[in-house]
Structure formats: structure tokens, C-alpha cells
Design brief:
This protein is α+β, with helices and mostly antiparallel strands. It is built from nine helices and four strands. Helices cover 69% and strands 8% of the residues. Helix 2 packs across helix 9, helix 6 packs across helix 8 and helix 6 crosses helix 9. 24% of the residues are buried.
Length: 297
């Protein structure tokens, strides 16, 4: 395809946008609303995923060793844990350190536990991290079968529920986003159909003088892309402004552990790129569906 032909396609697609002004405005408005909703869902889902990842990364297995285990037995257990494929790290924490951490975590209430420094009732512990948070349950069940392992704790009951909630939230978000994208495709497709109907005579003349299928189709594809890209401008501006405000006024002041919003940069840039690409994609796809059905070339 020559540069002259490409230039002609871009010019024709631009003319078509201005020729069907009201339909162009209606399509861009519909795409704007759709992409705004999609963008909001993306912002929410990506931040929820970020928070969920932070929580999941903190999930660990605490392997409490039997008091009867000697140094050799403890070292052997550590070796066996590290041999598990799903295990990322296994750090030994002696009971003295466990008591110190407990006193520190309890703050002023921890003074009571200092009485146990002479006769420490706690157990030596292996703190195990898995490569994937979802491997925690399976790994814990494997470790609890080892000799000299007194108990294994990983938040049983709560961890399973957390993984299920995260999975359900992700699936719901994906379904809603896909539904909104199909709505935008349908709207753009209808706009392109009207353009094709209005230009049927011109298209027939082009066919008679020997224009190829691709030569006729390209302006429509570009028109769909313009509709999608133009429809992404307002959502990007709104989301960037609102998210920056929320991050500056709320995000930096959140004191809850694990609850941390994604930083404005490069997050807003990523969202902007996603919305522009989605806008162009749904525009072109809407054009493709319209051309296939109504443009018999």
C-alpha cells in the first residue's frame, strides 16, 4: 500500500466523521460513557488486585516444632521443607526470638509475657513462604505430616475464604468489562452501518472502476478507530483527575496494613494506554462486523 493510498484512506475516514456529524457525536458520546465505566472498573479491579496481592504475599506458614526435636532433627525438617517445589523460603525462628517478638507486638500488654523468659513455653518455628500464595494450603498439609512437627498454622479457614473472595471479585469484574466493551462495539457498528448505507452509490461506482475490497474497507476501519480513540479522551481526563485527587487526599493517609493504592505514576499512564487501545480496538472491531454484514464486496 503506497503512502498516497494511506493518505487517501485517512482523509476519507476524516470526511466521513464530519459528514455524519450527529451520528459521530452520538457514537463518541456512547463510547465515552462506556469507556468511562470500563476505566472505573479497571481502576477498581487493579487496585483490588494490588491489595489482594499484598495480603496474599503476607500469607505464611508457621511450622511449630515438637520440643523433643534436637538440633539435628530441626535442621533435617528445614531441609525437607526447602525441598518442596512450592516453597520459596523457610526461615528458622528459635523460641527465644518468638517470645521477644510476642512481647514487642503486644506493646504495653507484653510486659506480662516477660515472666516466661525464664521458662519459655513457646516452640521453635519455621516461617515458610510459598512461591504462589495459592500453594499455602497444599504445602501446609504436606509439612504437617513430617516427624517432629507439632502443629502447622496458616490461617486455616480464613485463607480459603480470602482466595475465594478474590477469585469471585476478579471474575465479576472481567464479565462486566467484557459486557461494556461489547456494548461499545455494537454502538460503533451501528454508526458505520449508517455511513455505509449513505455511501452505497459511491461504493458501487468504486467497485465498477476496479477498486479492491481492501481499498473500499480501509476508510471504514479507520473511521471506527477514530470513533474509539476520540471516545477515550474524556474518560482518560476524568479518571486521571479523580484518581490523582483520591490518591493525594485519601490514599496517602490510609493507615490500614496491606491497603495501599497504586501510585498515580505509572498507573494513570497504564490506564490511559489501555483505554486508547481498547477504544481503537472496539472501534475497528465494530467496523469489521458492520462491513462484513452490509458491505457486499
Amino acid at each position: 500500500m503506497s503512502f498516497r493510498t494511506i493518505k487517501r484512506h485517512f482523509r476519507e475516514s476524516g470526511k466521513s466523521l464530519t459528514r455524519n456529524g450527529w451520528m459521530t457525536f452520538a457514537s463518541i458520546s456512547a463510547v465515552t460513557v462506556t469507556l468511562l465505566l470500563v476505566g472505573v472498573f479497571f481502576v477498581i479491579m487493579m487496585n483490588l488486585n494490588h491489595i489482594a496481592d499484598n495480603i496474599q504475599k503476607d500469607v505464611e506458614i508457621r511450622v511449630h516444632l515438637d520440643p523433643s526435636a534436637d538440633a539435628a532433627n530441626k535442621e533435617l525438617i528445614g531441609q525437607k521443607i526447602n525441598q518442596i517445589t512450592a516453597v520459596d523460603s523457610a526461615k528458622f525462628s528459635p523460641k527465644e526470638k518468638e517470645l521477644t517478638n510476642l512481647i514487642k507486638d503486644m506493646g504495653s500488654d507484653g510486659k506480662t509475657f516477660k515472666l516466661f523468659e525464664q521458662d519459655n513455653p513457646l516452640s521453635d518455628v519455621y516461617v515458610v513462604k510459598t512461591k504462589k500464595p495459592t500453594d499455602v494450603i497444599k504445602t501446609a498439609k504436606t509439612i504437617e505430616k513430617y516427624q517432629y512437627v507439632q502443629s502447622v498454622k496458616y490461617g486455616q479457614g480464613y485463607v480459603e475464604k480470602m482466595f475465594n473472595v478474590v477469585e469471585v471479585a476478579r471474575n465479576i469484574g472481567i464479565v462486566l468489562i467484557i459486557a461494556l466493551l461489547f456494548t461499545a462495539m455494537f454502538l460503533i457498528s451501528n454508526t458505520i452501518k449508517i455511513t455505509i448505507v449513505a455511501r452505497r452509490r459511491e461504493i458501487e461506482i468504486m467497485r465498477l472502476v476496479g477498486a479492491t475490497n481492501s481499498f473500499i474497507r480501509w476508510p471504514f476501519f479507520l473511521e471506527g478507530a477514530w470513533l474509539g480513540i476520540l471516545g477515550a479522551i474524556v474518560p482518560i481526563a476524568v479518571i486521571a483527575g479523580v484518581y490523582s485527587y483520591i490518591y493525594d487526599t485519601v490514599g496517602k493517609n490510609i493507615q490500614i496494613k496491606f491497603v495501599e493504592l497504586l501510585q498515580v505514576n505509572p498507573f494513570i499512564i497504564q490506564i490511559s494506554i489501555i483505554l486508547v487501545l481498547l477504544g481503537a480496538l472496539i472501534g475497528v472491531w465494530g467496523s469489521v462486523m458492520s462491513v462484513r454484514k452490509f458491505l457486499k464486496v
